[in-house]
Every structure is written in C-alpha cells, then in structure tokens.
Amino acid sequence: MKLEKLKKALNGIFSPEEIGLSESQENLGNIIARLQQKKQSIKERMQLAGEQDETSSAYHDLEKEYKVVSKLLKKAKKQYLGNDSAEADDMTRNS
Amino acid sequence: MLKRIIAPLIFLVFAWFVITGKDAKVIIAGIAIFLVGMHYMENGFKMFSGGALESVLERFTSTTIRAIGTGFLSTAIVQSSSLVSVIVISFLSAELIGLRQAVGVVFGSNIGTTTTAWLVSSFGLKIKIAEYALPMLIFGVVLQFDSAQGRKGLGSVLIGLGFIFLGIDYMKDGFENLKQQLDLAEYAMQGYAGIFVYILFGAIATVVIQSSSATMAIIITALATAQIDYINALSLAIGANLGTTVTAILGAMASNKSGKRLAAAHFIFNLVTALVAVLMIYQLKDLVDWLGPKLGIGEQDDAMKLALFHTIFNLLGVLIVTPFIGPLVRYLETLFRPGKDGRGRSKYLSSEVVEVPASALVALRKETIHLYDKSLEAIVHAMNLHRKAIFSKTRIKDVVAHSTSTIHINIEEIYQQELKKLYSEIIHYASLTMSNASVDDIRVIHELKKAARQIIEMVKDVRELQRNLNRFSKSRNKAMIARYNDLRSLIIIVLRAIQDMREMPGEQEDVLMQIELLKERVLESEFNLNQEIDTLIRNRDIDSIMASSLINDVGFTRRICNKFLNAAVILWVHDKELKALADNYET
C-alpha cells in the first residue's frame, strides 16, 4: 500500500498530466453517481407529489429539478464517455 | 553620482583585485560558484516541488510552534530562507496565512538556515566533495533537457548542489594557498573590540554577497584553514545574521505591507538574537565546548563548533522572542497601513503574490470576489435597493415596496473610478500569473478573467436600467411601476440565492443545481414579462415608447441575472469537472 502511494507521488512529479487525467475521470464518475442518486430521489418525491396533486406547485418545482438534474447528468456522461459513446449510451437506454 | 562614478570605480578596483590576486581570485570564484549553485537550487526546488513546498507551508502553520517547525524544516530542505520568505510573503498578502504564522515561519527559517553551516563544516570540509560535484553537474545538465517540469527541477537541484560543492572546494583551496603568502589570522583581534569589528565585517560581507549562507561558507572554510581566529569567526557569524536582515529590509522597501511587516519582524528577531549572542558570547562558547564532545564534535574541530554555535544562538533567539510573538504581531499590524483613499485599489493582488502560483490563484479569486461585492453594491444601489434589505429575512415583495426612494449614485463614475481600475488590476495580474502557471492553473486564470468580465459587463448593463427605472418609477403609470418592481424582485431572488450559497455551501452538486434552476427561472420570467408587455400594449396600459424601454430592460435584467449566476458558478462551485457541466460555462 505504501509502495503504491510512493509510486503515485513519483508519478505526480514525473507524469503530472497522466495523473490529472485519471483523477478527472474518477471525479466525473463520482459526480455521475451522486447526480444519479439525486435524480432517483427527486423521481421518488415527484411520484409521491404526483399521487396527491399533479397540478400543485410542489410537483412543478420537482419537475423542474428533475429536468435540471437530468440535463447535468447527460452532460456529465458525455464528458465521461466522450460524446459518441454518450449518445450511443442514451440510444441504448431509450430503446 | 553613486551610480555614475563610484559604482564603476568600485567595480574597476574589484576587477583589478580579482585579475591580479591569484589566490583571492580562487576564493572569489568559489563564492561566485557557490552563489550560482544557490540560485540553481532555489529555482530547481520551485520547479521540482510542483507546489509541494507551498502546500506544506500553507497546511502546517496552524500554531506558532508548528509554524516555527515548518519554517525550520522547509528551509533546511531547500537550503534557501529567501525562497521560503518569498512564499510566506506571498501567502500573507493573499491572506492564506496570518501574520502570526508568517512570523513563526520566519523564526523557524532562521534556525533552518543554520543547517548550511552544518553541511559545509561536515560534508564540505571532511570529504572530497568536488568529486561528487562533477557527476551531479553532468546528471543535472542531462535532466535539464527533459520537457517535464519535475525532472527539469530535479536537474536544477543537482546542478545547484554540484556548484555549491564545487564552490566550497574552490574556497577551501583558495584559503589554503593564501595562507602560504598571507596569514589573515595575524589580524585577529581579541576582546569586545574584536567582536564588534568582526560583527561589522560579517554584516558588510553578507550585505555585499546578499547571502548569509555564502558568508557562512566563507567563514567556515577560512576557519578550517586557520585563516581566522575561532572567537572572531563566532563574531562574523553573528554579523552574517545581522547582515541578512539588512538585505531583507532593502528587499522589503519596494514590497507591499506584508513584506514590510515581515522584514520588520525579521529585523527585530535578528537584532535581539545578535544582542543576546554578543552579551553571552563567552558563555555560549563555553556551552559549545561542553556540548560539542557530547554530540561527537572533536575539541579541535572549530568548523563544526561554529556550526553548533550558529544553531544555538539562533535557537536561543527563538526561545527568547517567541513568548512575545503576540505583542510583536499586534505592533507589526499597526505598521505600514494603507492610506484612506483605497478606491479602485486591489486588496489582495501585488507583485509579491504573483511570484508564487498557489497564492496568486487564491489572491486572484479573492480579488474577483472583491470586484463582485463592489459591483453588487453599485448594482443594487442603481436599482434603488439596499444590501441590508436584500439580504434580510423580509419578504421580497415588501423589500421592493419599501424601497421607493431614489438612491443618487453616479454609476458611470463608480465604474470609471473604482470598478474599471480593479478589473484592470485583475487582468494585469492574471496575465503576470500565467507566465509561470501550469496548464491547470492557466484554465483557472482564464475562468477568473471570464468571471471578472461578466461582473464588469453587469455594471455596464445596469447603467441603462437605472436611467429607465428612475424615469418610470416616478411616472404615474402603475403598470410600469409594477413591471420595474418585478425586475427588481427577480434580481433580489438571484442575489439572495447566491448569498445563501456563499454563506451555507452545501454539496457542490446542490449548489450547481440551484444555479441552473435559477437560470431556468430567469428565462421563464423573461418570457412571462414579455407576454405581459404584449397584453399591456393591447390594453393600451402603456404606450409604444414605454413598451420598447421595458422590453429592453427585461433583456438587461435577464443578462444581469445570468451574468451573476455565471460568475457564481466560477467563484463558488469549486469542483472543476462539476462546474464544466453548467450552462454557458464555455462562453
């Protein structure tokens, strides 16, 4: 474990670009996971609010939040996978 | 006069001395090589550490003791108190650390700088270091050709060490040869007269060479070759400590208030330390004689004993001055205060800050936030609103209803006199910072420049809005008054939300979602207001001139709100991957 840390630190000095790139991908992966969680939670709250009254302002607010989180998630996936792969991913999901 | 006649004269005398004096030439060449080595090592550590030194100095200075320890260790490792003090002044200017911590680091750095004496007296004199110098220089030069900053930096450190070793070797040879013709030890002076004369020599030598480490190297090599008397060498070491303060003061003259305060702290510390060392020089000598053998230093090894003396008296200085660090800092804070007319003057940016990329970025961000706050004040006043009311718990409807009186401010004058100057400084320092920034840092600088531009554009937009607002809020047309109040309400909604994010930043994803939701809301409001304007025209509640002004101002308000939100993404969403997901991030 210590050896791994040392390797990473040395890589940071000698190949900082590679380290930066992999960290960026890792961070994007985490962002996607957190946004997905949020999207799911908003969806559940929307369902609950919709069961009571689909014309309520609370429902509409959640709907807006859902749209925003979906948009952010789509962008994050595009960046994570590269544009083409993200579109392919979307198509697979839609089909 | 001095520059035109005396300086060239001194240079000519010096040149004659160097050319004709065979052994003096070798000693002076040794000093020059040593200084080149110090320069390479300092630059190499800057590149090699890749911000690690900055990170250590920022993180491990929370208490005075930790600050002293960090100052000691970092100076001992990089062998350059000037590099450490450049970083500390830069951090202090950017308010990354407080004056108390900075003073602690300077105290520690003074002890750290004594390690040079240990290196010279142990490795420098006991082993044939010139043999190690040449391979170091070869590998150092090879690494210099590498494109990676880290390896290039390592190369510079090796070249630096190689030159330092070579310099010491030259000095040693020079003093040994000189001894055969001229015995400087014959000029040794005993008693307190000798102590004061040699302190003066040490101080002058350090001021001329601009490096106490180089002076110490000369003293140690001269002592090792028996060219100077031991007690005189101790006095020279005290003088070197004082001389370095003069160098720091001269450097601080053109510096900002942080640099001046730190130089004052350094001066007070070194003066107290020198006084104590002079008063107790014989007791300290006895202490070294007693402690030396316990540390494995031979009784005849004057060079190592001098290194021990140098460390002990600096350590003593820290022990004496540290208990008074609180009052010292309070006193220093009363010095070098800026004048009252600070309009348009940057709070965080200065040439000292720009020297260290880590603090330059922080200072640029803080200055952009400063510009944001100043512009926000101007914008809300132009909208006849007060910040206190905007950021209170009062309902937005009530805030707008109660803010009816005109606030007479000349937004054009504020823009020209204050905000434009501040913006220009941000752009100026951003460009300077870019010259030694990494690719990642350059991206951040571009972002901050973009945020500053958006902020300044908001102020330009509000100039138009203010004119119509003041014109129509005094009209009798209730429809127009109501619509302008809607525009003011929208701005309050956006500003309140941004303020909440600043004060209680939650998860970064939530902050970004909030901003994106607000952007949607602004767009929706613009659409609704334009629809309402159509209805008002149809119902003849407003005429076409009123309508065109209102349509323009709805557009201005949307632009102002969006720019506030775009700037907020750059300034308060810290995750770089996350902020890239925001709308209009690239524009």
Largest sheet of chain B: none
Average predicted local confidence, pLDDT of chain A: 77
**DSSP strand (E) fraction of chain A?**
under 5%
Give a short account of the largest sheet of chain A.
Answer: none
Report how far the terminal alpha carbons of chain B are from each other. Answer: 56 Å
Name the assembly state.
heterodimer
**Radius of gyration of chain B, taken over Cα atoms and rounded to an integer in Å:** 32 Å
Computed structural class of chain B? mainly alpha
Instruction: Give average pLDDT of chain B, whole number.
Output: 85
Structural class from helices and strands of chain A? mainly alpha
Tally the beta strands of chain A: 0
Roughly what percent helix of chain B? over 70%
What's the gist of this structure?
Chain A is mostly helical and 95 residues long. Chain A has helices at residues 2-14, 16-52, 57-81, 83-94. Chain A starts with a helix and ends with a helix.
